[in-house]
Amino acid sequence: MREPFHSTWQLVKAPLRIAAGVLMILLGITGLLLPILPGWIFIFPGLALLLPGTRAGHWLREKTERLRAEVKRRRGKAGEECPAPQEAAPADEPAGPDT
Asked: How many domains does the chain have?
């Protein structure tokens, strides 16, 4: 029962991967031209989809994983670097310098 699905999936998988890769690269190029959309986020995974078994595809996957880890690390640090809120001065003491 599982054989027909498996063989159909094998026939459809490569064209879907290629179509997704081309679509991501086109989105990436559009993102390079538009200031709203970051293009590199789509270009690297798109190239990785189009070059799955090559050295370049392996290199791109490694770079994408490193970049993803770096972004997560920086987002975590950004939350830690926020200064603590300052306490308000008591009502008895003047807030400014004495005159």
From this structure: 1
Domain that holds residue 19: 8-71
Rounded Cα gap, residues 64 and 25, in angstroms: 14
The Cα–Cα gap between 29 and 16 comes to: 20
E strand or H helix at 58: helix 55-80
Output DSSP code: residue 52: T
Give the integer Cα–Cα distance in Å for 20 and 60. Answer: 16
pLDDT (tens digit per residue) in 27-68: 989 988 988 878 888 888 888 888 877 787 778 778 878 888
- Contact call for residues 57 and 47 (beta carbons, < 8 A): yes
Tell me if 36 is assigned to some domain.
Answer: yes
